[in-house]
Structures
1.
Amino acid sequence: MNVIARRILPPVLLGIVVLAAWQILVTALAIPQIVLPSPAAILAETLAYIPVLFSAALVTGWNALVGLVVGSLLGIGFALVAASIRVFDELTTPLVAALAVIPIVALAPVLYTMYGADVQSARQAVAGISVFVPVFLNTLRGLRQTRPVHRDLMRAYAATRWQAMRTVTLPTARPFIFTGLRIASSLSVIAALVAEYFGGPRGGLGTFITASVAGSDYARAWSYVLASIVLGLLFYLAALAVETLAVRHRPA
Amino acid sequence: MSTIETTAPPERAGAGAPAVAVTGLDKTFTTSDGPTQALKGIDLEVAAGEFVSLIGPSGCGKSTLLRIIADLERPTTGEVRVFGTSAPQARLDQAYGIAFQQAGLLGWRTVAANVELPLELHGVGRAARRARSTELLELVGLSDFAARFPDQLSGGMQQRVAIARALAERPRLLLMDEPFGALDEMTRERMQTELARISAETGAAVVFVTHSISEAAFLSDRVVVMSPRPGRITTTVTTGLGPVGERTDALREDPRFFEAVTAVREGLHAGSAGVAGTGGGSGGTGAAT
């Protein structure tokens, strides 16, 4: 009760105030729709197009999810190898640094020609690559946090590499891995969505945003943006929920 | 390779051998400024069941010596035998239990699960593990905290958990590297009294690194005094305070305790004075190469 009053109510109130101000401003100043549609207009479009929004979110969400899962698995896997094999680490560090500075979505057109323009794989690949970097870097950092006293203990216990990994190294890295996944979760949605701006099959939120803008349907474009925000939020919350479940047994 | 007998039988091969036998040990670290000699010409024997402290100023190599006995470091030259076997073999056999200045508990495991960690790594069944951790937590007076997490415990309690963990496999040798170094004086004295009792109850030999004179005198049968650059043993003080297990807080006000403290202190000062005075003379002990 108290939590709701103190932590949830204020932002909700603020949101309502902002929306009301927006609505009053747009009506009072007679701002044309091309500049800024009113919240009421956006809401009307959203309600009218719910089935379309839902199916578009499903397309983009699926691409993001595939990218997130594959990119994260690769990121964690490569980090494990890099943490245990020094040469591999030295080889990959510059590559990952290069990967981190490439605007991945800029690769989308190139990937479309590679995969063919009528499949979703290019978008999934874009999402996957952009997820890979934060997951890899955070996991690698986490794997290097093992405290010397724990390393000494594992040696004193004559623990095997695998035992040391399972009992000390991975649990120590866990918060770092989840930080990477949390960053990656919203990143995957953004990447999958923006990749749609560069062509490829229609059906996702990104293609509908560009199509609505091209058709001067600004309120509808905003309703797709709204759906994108909800989708990104869902991914973020899902990552947060998984993290909370996984580290539940550890006091803060 | 690392399948280990988990309940050490009281008598086994090498039972007659001393707990620790170090002969002619040198240790040189290679640093960016060139080689640094950490230990020089160390000879040390610890009998089974004996409590021996290593004391000396920072940088005298006492922790390094302990780590070499534990096979966490390798000696440059010289030999280390633990119950008659080589140090690496003793480590694989889990011949010793170890505790460090940092308790080094795993924060994501309960207190009981931390105590059970070595048993778990060596394949002891769940029921046997639980029985042993219950027993050990009782020994260190933490039975009520089995289900807590380390963060919920004070520093002294965490260190007691670490000691329980070191005792999990009934080692006949305990290696302790300043285990009470980070504790306040009150807690420290209580822990010392408890360790005296525990070491007597388990009958394990203890090699105890400290830089507290009173701690060394209170706990030990013998105090080995070391001096730095290069680390070497200057004197050995036999405290003569009776069986370690019978040492209680009353001993802290006993004149014999003050005598032992004085003897250790004088040994330490003679050792550090000797750095200037007999610097050249100590070369004679480095013949182990």
Note: The mean pLDDT of chain A is 84.
2.
Amino acid sequence: MRIPCPYCGLRDSHEFTYLGDATVKRPDPAAPNALDTFSDYVYLRDNPAGAHRDLWYHASGCRSWVVLERDTRNHAIGGATLAREVTP
Amino acid sequence: MSRLPSGGRIDRSQPLSFSFDGKAYKGFAGDTLASALLANGVRLVGRSFKYHRARGIFSAGSEEPNALVELRTGARREPNTRATTVELFDGLSAQSQNRWPSLDFDVMSVNGLLSPFLGAGFYYKTFMWPAAFWEKLYEPIIRRAAGLGRAAEGTDPDSYEKAYAFCDVLVIGGGAAGLTAALSAARSGARVIIADEDFALGGRLLSEQHPIDGAPATSFVAKVEAELASLPNVRIMSRTTVFGVYDSGDYGALEKVSDHLAVPAPFQPRQRMWKINAKQAVLASGAFDRPIVFGGNDRPGVMSAQALRTYAVRYGVAPGNSAVLFANNDYAWSAALDAAEAGVRLTTIVDVRTEVAPALTARAKALGTRVILGGEVVATSGKVLTSVIVRSGGREETISTEVLAISGGTTPNLHLTSHFGSKPLYNKELAAFLPNTPPPGMAVAGAAGGHFSLAATLRTGAELGAAAATAAGFNATPVAAQAEETPSGISAFWQVKGARGKAFVDFQNDVTNKDVTVAHREGYRSVELLKRYTTLGMATDQGKNSNMAGLAIMAELTGQGIGETGTTLFRPPYTPVALGAIAGHHRGKDFRPTRPTPSHAWAKERGAMFVEAGQWLRAQYFPKPGEKDWLETVIREVKATRASVGMIDVSTFGKIDLKGPDAGAFLDRVYINMFSTLAVGKARYGVMLREDGIVMDDGTTSRLSPEHYVMTTTTANAAKVYQHLEFCLQVLWPELDVQLASITEQWAQISISGPKSREVLAKVVDAPIDVSNEALPYMGVAQGTVMGGVKTRIFRLSFAGELGYEIAVPARHGEKLVRALMAAGEPFNITPYGTEALAVMRVEKGHVSGSELNGHTSARDLGLGKMASTKKDFLGRVLSGRPAFLEEDRPILAGFRPVDKTKRIRAGAHFMAIGAEPVLENDEGYMTAAIFSPTVDSWIGLGLIKRGTERWGEKVRAYDPVRGEDIEVEICDPAFVDPKGERLRV
């Protein structure tokens, strides 16, 4: 698979480390129900068959965290954005 | 000899010697092992997998199910090599396999008599009872009887390598369609790679006799190949099999660089694994002739009709002194007739059809070949084929023949089109499965796409080649090449009813039509179950020949159509790929890079023993002459350090540079304790958690200036922590203004510990660095120079628990610093030590390390819970407050010492109350580390035990069933040495 790194261009996926779901947002740690929201944030993941966004780290490249739009059924790549420019 | 007097694309001026089963033979350059064996009259080449039936050569390509041999000898021995794809070389040595004691007389062929027990699903049904017999009796017998070749016992002396290539258009297959595809794409200027598994381009054109553009097909091949070779944008890769299709236009290909040589040339690999990235691909992988199922259809001498032509026309070999054709389609006729015109004595053509194109029967007549229409071959006889029984018009006759060419039709070679999960579709008219939806960017040309006639092959190749180049951004037009349109005339026919003897569906796995019937009867009717129950379509040929007939028979039994029955999915690799090629250079010592420390050369000089630690090669201990074992060495190293001064290279610790106005705030969020309040010129021990509350890593972080910190991590977690910090900065808190850099490799860091370490340090620092306790107190940081001008950072800290310093210098000065410290420390008997002594001293001190930071422990479990700041949030804080982490009975870090001081305790032992039954319910925790402590003068350990901090003085069992040990231990303070830390502050 090849990943269009926003900084480096189209690169082989072997240069990247996969983390997982990019759609989850770190909850407010000060909220009264933080224990529940953090449990969901850490452990609960959707497993969609289709369009998905996941986080990849360009470990052997620019060291950017990249949000990749990917179809989980066929690895068709929709696009990639630097994670720091994305609001989940 | 069966070599025809003339003809063939072999070089008769270049004779080659080879041996098979120890007997010497001759062949020619341009032969395969299979063609050379047939040329020498060798027709029996192996024994089958299960029944040990005699097997000959069936095909002339990579679909070969039968002719699997062991190639080469000794450490280069390679089992299950298809003789049909082995290019002959001088001195080649091959052995038949799966036979005992000899190929000709095989005692295991009695398995044929046992076949009622070895049928479909026999593994599951037979040998069930008693259970103990399985391992001791049944399995060894079955392993001896079944199975294929033997792997080499020695280490492969050859090398393998990996390579990468990029192109606009990848053409897979160098036959008629591949050549026009490549040429059409190449003329547009597109970067083209054309790959073919054969050593010569041409595919079927090397065997067929049809003219192209009015000239012989071979001149067309030569012309196109010359033009392709002349173009700088084209790369011709012969002997290269594209075996898999992967995401984003990646293709796996195996180049057999030296398989056609006895020994690879100097510095050349045997095979090269390619990853080819292509914008577009044209699959032009051709088609196979498939067998018909009838009695004795596996006998040596039975071969595919296309193979007969290939041996006759391409290799100039008559595989026997007479031949019979049994077929149901016109292509088989032209193949057999081409072979006859090349010199094979084709006596009879038997066709199940009652009508055949007059042009073909006329050609047969002209050759004097008898034609039997509406006939079937019902049986064969001979150890190698001597005769066949033909049934037609209600009567049977025996016809003598050494070769029976068969063809049940043409099966497109569409393997690669299903690598993305697309199941082929059945086409009734062609009686073949055709590609459904190929992977993105791939188009299928020629016979692989069901375009069987030569004209259609050339045309679709040209069109799709041009289309591929156009899609890749070039302006391409299809090249023109004219040939005759020929129909297949096929009438679907799968098996002869009422055949006598075993009728094989899958030659390689000994699957008969009866096995398919049994599978159906027992309910294994879906194709995927049929495959796994009967093994139909498994092993090296992956059912390239056999699948169709098996599916057709199943379809007949279920009453469904073949299309509804469907076919199993093809998965990579298309042909077997050696693990050596997948590993490439990554084997043995080169499995991963060796990463020596800055002091490596010096340590080697001192006779250090080394150990792989994380990604590094570190000194483990420094034995002195006369020391009897490592323990004696380590004890000396520990004692010398605690008594005077010791030295260790700690450059392997991860080092991360953090700069920016928010660096302190950032560290507050990733560590459980505060760092924004750390004074400039000070270091602090920190613990960081994962978001789930488990400890991720620990280490010291120092503040060099208000906006500049340097973090150290454990050796093992350096990369992981760096990635984590980047995640925090880029994903969680992009609003923070902090820049990170990994400086692990830029700085060498040498630790000196022990009461004399200050005096040693004083001798290497330059003014104005003051190393006095007042100027550089415990956890102080100094910057300046050492050794007369080498930049340095000095951290006063010690993992060993003594007065100690870590002295960092740019990595290129690391070795010089070590030598300088050794010289400065000589009066104090400075003692270098390695990872073993470090491990001893950290346990003595009760410092946690990798075996406690094991992905299961919280900060509280490690006795570090009190470090957590309550004045701020930090990553992992919320979930470290989970009820389960706060349970009273959670195992917590403690020290352990044997009650009997002479006893050795070991890591891994589980704790339970004295007298308690050793069952899981009574388990109270386990020992994480144990060492012999010269300071305590006994074995001591660290471990996690329920309510560990409250139970000091209590005695428990350390139960170790793995090593058969059961030792009484006392729970104690994990800090065995200097629990108050006074030595650190002197």
Note: The longest helix of chain B spans residues 454-471.
